[in-house]
Amino acid sequence: MKKYVCGPCGYEYDPAVGDPDSGIPAGTSFEDLPDDWECPICGAGKEEFEPVD
Length: 53
Description:
Shape: globular
Largest sheet: 3 strands, antiparallel
Pfam family, one: Rubredoxin
GO molecular function, one term: iron ion binding
Number of strands: 3
Mean pLDDT: 97
Domain Rubredoxin-like: 1-52
Number of helices: 0
Low-confidence stretches: none
Radius of gyration: 10 Å
Oligomer: single chain
Helix content: under 10%
Binding site for Fe cation: 6, 9, 39, 42
Family: Belongs to the rubredoxin family.
């Protein structure tokens, strides 16, 4: 699964880790995140994230 990085702040969403503070379990792909999920650092929406190779 691809990692995604937040454009405004640089936070990297890693599907292997998830976002436990937001109740997102490890193994959750970026595409499977809820539409209203936001960056846990700056609050940016999913549309602000870009895939990382």
